[in-house]
Amino acid sequence: MGRLQRIRGKLVEADDLFAKALSLDAENPDALQLYYAAPLQCGTAQGRARSRKTLRALEPYVPAFIADFGDILWENGQDAAAIETLHRYSSRVLSP
């Protein structure tokens, strides 16, 4: 439901639904990813550090989560951290 509300442009409602999903399962990787990304789409530069740390602890090797995190760091002016994150990701993916 949160994704549907986000697609409809109802970001506050989407954020509430992602928070509700996390209240039911605080370690759901998909809900954490969506909950983390929602405030960033609204222009909140800091996002939700706690959910991001939890997501990285639960799913440290999911390419989409790593790439999204690198993009988010870059969009928030953390260029060096973004480069490091994406470099570590690409070296894992592209190495034989």
Q: Quote the distance from N terminus to C terminus.
A: 40 Å
Order of helices and strands: HHHHHH
Question: What shape does the CA trace take?
Answer: globular
Would you tell me the structural class of the helices and strands? mainly alpha
* Sheet with the most strands, sense and barrel status: none
Whole-number radius of gyration? 14 Å
Whole-number count of domains: 2
Helical residue percent band: over 70%
Low-confidence blocks of residues: none
Mean pLDDT metric: 77
Helical region count? Answer: 6
Q: What portion of residues belong to β-strands?
A: under 5%
- Total strands: the figure is 0
Features:
96 residues, mainly alpha, 2 domains
Describe, in plain words, how this protein is organized in 3D.
The longest helix is centred in the last third of the chain and has 16 residues, at 79-94. By secondary structure, the chain is mainly α. It folds into two domains: 1-48, no CATH class; 61-96. α5 (63-75) packs antiparallel against α6 (79-94). The protein is globular. It is built from six helices and no strands. It starts with a helix and ends with a helix.
